Amino acid sequence: MSKKFDVVVVGAGPAGYVAAIRCAQLGMKTACVEKWHDDKNDPVYGGTCLNVGCIPSKALLDSSHKYSEAKKDFAIHGISMDKLAIDVPAMIDRKAKIVKQLTQGVKGLFAANKVEGIQGAGKLLKGKKVLVTAADGSTQELEADHIILAAGTEPINFPPPPVDQDVIVDSTGALEFTEVPKRLGVIGAGVIGLELGSVWSRLGSEVTILEATDAFLPAVDTQLAKEAQKVFEKQGLTIKLSSKVTGSKVSTGKTKTVTVSYTDKDGEQEIVFDKLIVAVGRRPCSAGLLSDDCGVQVDQRGFIQVNDQCATAVPGVWAAGDLVRGPMLAHKGMEEGVMVAERIAGKKTQVNYDLVPFVIYTHPELAWVGKTEQQLKDEGVEYNIGTFPFSINGRAMAANESAGLVKLIAHAKTDRILGCHILGPSAADLTQQIAIAMEFSASAEDIGLTMFSHPTLSEAVHEAALAVGGHAIHAVNKRKRN
Ligand code: FAD
Ligand code: NAD
């Protein structure tokens, strides 16, 4: 006998738990199936984001930034310290406490909203049924009018020998080092490589990042990517572009090391590390999630095929978050979770996929929303650009945070903002202001006419907007005044 619900959600990451809460808020009897469990076989909610992704990585980024500031930046403010020491286990422990607090928080939200959490691995069967296999091996069948698949992704394991979470780790293992590795290799100069490479570099590792592509961060606006590369290299990251890793070998001695083989412009190369982080992307957890006859289609890479509203080809079956097309970002998944719940309830909610904000949480942060200059060139759109460097922003100078710039791009004829790209302190929050403005179809002039508090970092955004029209006040304008 199947247990009957209005909605069954499979996966309790940001896409799944948000969808479940919103469904329950809208009056639907909702269950959320999650395979992650603790040592008592109780479900652990929050998915990759809360357990091994966004939150723990930011906890370590913040801890390591404080250490790095104390070591490198305090003296310029006239602050000296006799002794500075790192207690890595304490840092890791603090991170674990934050994770626990937030995952327990989701449990509390489920209880408050009457979402039934069910531990187990879910498999979609024909006829909108879900077979759940619990950690203790027991099974049960659930049935619902609507099923939302939100099983997320897992790290891609490359190269052989596979990740052992000791010498060769993935992003999860890189959040658990108990001491600072001396020579740390990273495969992939993507988001994870840069964020986790920065954590351990700040704490003292010699970090070398091997990246297959010729360009650094090819999806980022080229001007900012070039600037960011300079800043990161100055901070101590060695970034080897055009370096495709082909294999690795772990030594057998007492103190293990790993020799990584890669090819670059000069041919075959080898390099030895004490630890290696593999950060070459993530793949969807769709294997084992779908029965052969359930009717849901996956693409060649295993992503579940959905339309712009996250509906699969099977009526009543939806999929959201990292499991489907688009950027792998927690906030994108959360918005999709809300959209699906509201669509099920008959509303016309639609995610605006043109305005997904992106952030790389290095220091300075790199954040953007909308189109890059290259994209607009390729699309033949005429545009004007306004830039403003943090080196001449009073607040950034006061904080000794003067690396980076704001770049705002607006349509040449309508002045509507098409893109905002920021490398700098609090770039994520500054970019978010422009994301809101873009949702309201703001022009660069609208931002220019808005009063900004002084002295703030956001004045750099204001000046960049004024510079689009050629009349920045606190910088020499490259364009003619109008
Ligand atoms: P997930 O969070 O992966 O959740 C899926 C859940 O489904 C998991 O709990 C899994 O156990 C469960 N599951 C899988 N299969 C089944 C099954 N068959 N039955 C039951 N349950 C199942 N994004 C950002 O936006 N900002 C960041 O700063 C950021 N930092 C990151 C840092 C790291 C190190 C990593 C790895 C990722 C980071 N991300 C970040 C990406 C972010 O974590 C993901 O985009 C987000 O977690 C995706 O949410 P999701 O709900 O789609 O999937
Ligand atoms: P990624 O796609 O961002 O980067 C992987 C990099 O590895 C690419 O640059 C690729 O060229 C390189 N690569 C692949 N094979 C290689 C090889 N053989 N040798 C050398 N380089 C190789 O993937 P990621 O960094 O693993 O992150 C996975 C996902 O997690 C991302 O899509 C991202 O959206 C998400 N994430 C987001 C945040 C954030 O929003 N701040 C943080 C962490 C992770």
Write up what this structure looks like.
The protein is an alpha/beta fold and 482 residues long. The protein has 3 domains: 3-155 and 283-354, FAD/NAD(P)-binding domain (3-Layer(bba) Sandwich); 168-280, 3-Layer(bba) Sandwich (FAD/NAD(P)-binding domain), CATH 3.50.50.60; 364-468, 2-Layer Sandwich (Enolase-like, domain 1). 30% of the residues lie in helices and 24% in strands. It has 12 helices and 22 strands. The strands form 5 sheets. Strands 1, 2, 3, 4, 5, 6 and 17 form a 7-stranded mixed sheet that branches. Strands 8-15-9-10-11 form a 5-stranded parallel sheet. Strands 18-19-22-21-20 form a 5-stranded antiparallel sheet, sandwiched between helices. α1 runs parallel beside α4 (88-113) and α3 packs antiparallel against α4 (88-113). The longest helix is centred in the first third of the chain and has 26 residues, at 88-113. The protein is globular and about 75 Å long. The termini are far apart.
Any chance you could write out the topology, listing elements then pairs?
Blueprint (H helix, E strand, L loop, with lengths): L2 E8 L3 H12 L4 E5 L12 H6 L1 H19 L15 H26 L2 E4 L1 E5 L3 E5 L5 E11 L3 E3 L12 E2 L13 E5 L3 H12 L3 E5 L11 H14 L2 E3 L3 E7 L7 E7 L2 E7 L1 E4 L3 E3 L32 E3 L10 H15 L13 E3 L4 E6 L2 H7 L3 E7 L4 H5 L6 E7 L5 E8 L2 H13 L4 H5 L10 H10 L14
Parallel strand pairs: 1-2, 1-6, 2-3, 6-17, 8-15, 9-10, 9-15, 10-11
Antiparallel strand pairs: 4-5, 5-6, 7-16, 12-13, 13-14, 18-19, 19-22, 20-21, 21-22
Helix pairs in contact: 1-4, 1-7, 3-4, 3-5
Bound molecules: flavin-adenine dinucleotide (FAD) and nicotinamide-adenine-dinucleotide (NAD).
The site of nicotinamide-adenine-dinucleotide (NAD) has 24 residues, from helix 5, strand 12 and strand 18.
